[in-house]
Request: fold
Amino acid sequence: MATVNELKDLEFFGVFSETHLEELAKIVEKKSYKKNAHVYERGDRAKHLFVVDKGLVSLRRFEPGDDVGIAFEMRDSGGLFGAASFMEPQEYTLTAVCIEDSEVMAVDADKLAELCKNDPAVGYELMLKIAQIYFERYKIAKRDLHGMVQAPTVIAALPG
Reply:
C-alpha cells in the first residue's frame, strides 16, 4: 500500500482531494523493478494503471523472436502508463521495460473502477486527468508525424 504523502509527490495524483487520496492509497502498491525488468508484457490482461515514481520505463513492441523491440514512448518520474486497464478488452498493447532501476505506483484497475463507480467525483477527476495526458500525447504525435511527412526522404538503391 502506498502512503498519501507518496501519492501527493506525484503530479498525476495532484487533482485528488485529501479524502480521495486516502481512498486511492488503499489500492495503490509501490513496486520496484531492476533495469531490463518487464513491468508487463504485450497481450497480458491489463490489471493495473501505473505511474512512475523513480526511474525510466520504455513502452515497446516485440515481435516473436525479437530480442530488441521498437520503442514507442518513454515514461520517467510522474509518467502514466498502462491506461489499457480502463478500456475493453483490458489488454496491454505494448511491453513495459525498465531502462534503469525503477519504482512505480501500481493502481489496481478493478478496485479503481469500483471506487469511481461508488464516488463519481473520483472518476470525473481521474478521467479529466487521463484525457489531458492523452491529448498532450496526441499533440506530440501529430507534430512528430507532420515533421516526418515534411522531411525530405532519400531512397538509395544499390546494384545487386
Q: What stands out?
A: Residues 4-150 form a domain with the Jelly Rolls fold (CATH 2.60.120.10).
